[in-house]
Amino acid sequence: MRIAIMGAAGKAGALIAREALSRGHDITGFGRSAKPGVDVVKDALDLTAEDLADVDVVVDALGFFNPENLDLHTTAALHLADLLAGADARLLIVGGAGSLYVDAERTTPLLETSDFPDAFVPLARAQAAQLAASRERTDAAWTFISPAADFQADGEREGGYVLAGDLLETGADGTSRISYADYAIAVVDEAERAEHVGEWISVHAA
Q: What is the pTM of this model?
């Protein structure tokens, strides 16, 4: 497959690219500056449909962390959706865990619980807005993939994951965790299988 990765130089993007390359896929990395793994230096908001004309899957692994640009999570995802609207190519969005519900009634997201770190609330709300905006799109083949609550950048690659939905789930040890490397496996699996188009899914360690 031909996979375009936005934010290919970031921690998540780089591991997704590595996982896809290990399976023989053709990867094009996009980034805002020239770095290892970046084939095309271009701001995501400056991309055109022509830039993505030959790809099968676009992975939005863009990260915005400064308070003044958190809204770019939504802006960039919607721009990519615009570019892919009506096309066969799919959009996979690297989401956050803060939106996952902690109750069966689906009234309380993780980010509104007392245990959620205050420092991460603005980012979680921005990613929740990104999710809400994506779910409104019926013209683009998107999938929003949330990681577990403890998203471990340097965590060990265990080689698998448990697929879940919009509820926060835990593994056998009672924790909600997943490494970036195992999350990358889930992203590339979805790229290959296209089993959750137009859905919000989550993944965690077994």
A: 0.97
